């Protein structure tokens, strides 16, 4: 049973911060070092200081990016830069953005959700996580005792009861927060404090499964933090704030729900493997070739590859570009290959995923990468942008780039409901849920 509750969120004081665009950021895991520096320079109260602080060679266990984050957080609260709402609320949000020249609006609601182990089937993951990231995020939570960013999650609501109820309650209200972020996305937020609405939403969600879209590391970290805190807190009760985590909930049927591909950029593949790779792959794929000489960008190899991938086909297609190769390759999976090679170890649901074909067949079977290497972010990096992924191999920043089509939302749902786990970074829900609208404290007092 999913427990969804309103809460007294912590927000930037509008009397101190007039424009949230100056202090809000994307989630920590998509911020580049260059963006981190820019956010630092943009405003002294930018939330980058909380979610992704600077490191120093002088850092110690008592003075490091996490302890400094806690220092900023507590100081901003005491100085009135951050303030806690006086009444519990559900926070209805909208974001307007463009994809392929189309204007899209996505709606969501920020609330607290009771933590449940995955095995209970209430909150469901769909992809693997990185071990190092979870340990790093846990250290941050131990220092700060707060959720700085909501976890992006999904639920099924074909009639959009939740959204319609919340929007109706705000029908004549102007948004309490409205700003355009650094990427040109328009964000709006309304507080919903009506207790009757709270009850109706909470009751509706009781029998719903919640699917984590983005934030698996943060959810697993929240579970670990609760265990860590309960071990050290006499009388730790079921109502303790650490039993809940802040989530952004979006209906699976929302027309604004967009999934982009997560292309792979891979390093440290041996030259021997790369030399024999294409020949070995011919046993599993029909391979066509295209020139890379036209470069990267509009009207070039980027568009040609995307057009080839998107040409209607029921079989997996993966673009492959290798360092120092003058041509790129389009891999089209031959029928029956995955079932023959891996049908004994995974379901048909998993076998049909493009990311499974890439991970299990190409990266592990043909290129010889092991699970430890797949878990190593210094070897595997990701981008949702084709031109960025291709530029990385052109400049020699990686040995090979693999271009994918997007995973579909129905595939995410089927995998999660079956209790199965996709490879890491199988999805890129776009845009990310912005950080800085609402925060949540995990200790009392």
Keywords:
single chain; 445 residues; alpha+beta; 2 domains; nine-stranded mixed beta sheet; six-stranded antiparallel beta sheet; 33% helix; 23% strand; globular
Descriptive report:
The protein has 445 residues and is an alpha+beta fold. It folds into two domains: 4-258 and 431-441, no CATH class; 262-405, no CATH class. Helices cover 33% and strands 23% of the residues. It contains 15 helices and 21 strands. The strands form five sheets. Strands 1, 4, 5, 6, 8, 9, 10, 11 and 12 form a nine-stranded mixed β-sheet that branches. A six-stranded antiparallel β-sheet has the order 15-17-16-19-14-18, with helices on both faces. It is globular, with a radius of gyration of 23 Å.
Strand content: 15-25%
Radius of gyration: 23 Å
Structural class by sheet pairing and helices: alpha+beta
Query: What's the domain count?
Result: 2
**Major β-sheet profile:** 9 strands, mixed
Number of helical elements = 15
The number of distinct β-strands equals 21
Share of helical residues = 25-40%
Distance between the termini: 29 Å
Give the overall pLDDT as a whole number.
Answer: 92
Shape: globular
Low confidence ranges: none
Give the structure's gist in a few sentences.
By secondary structure, this protein is of the alpha+beta class. It has two domains: 4-258 and 431-441, no CATH class; 262-405, no CATH class.
Any chance you could write out the topology, listing elements then pairs?
Elements: E1 4-5, E2 10-12, H1 33-42, H2 48-51, H3 65-78, E3 82-84, E4 90-99, E5 102-114, E6 123-124, H4 131-144, E7 146-147, E8 151-155, H5 161-169, E9 177-180, E10 186-192, H6 195-205, E11 210-214, H7 216-232, E12 244-251, E13 258-260, E14 263-266, H8 271-281, E15 285-291, H9 301-310, E16 317-322, E17 327-333, H10 337-342, H11 348-351, H12 354-366, H13 371-374, E18 380-383, H14 386-394, E19 400-403, H15 409-417, E20 428-430, E21 440-441
Parallel strand pairs: 6-11, 8-12
Antiparallel strand pairs: 1-5, 2-3, 4-5, 4-10, 5-12, 7-21, 8-11, 9-10, 13-20, 14-18, 14-19, 15-17, 16-17, 16-19
Helix pairs in contact: 3-4, 4-7
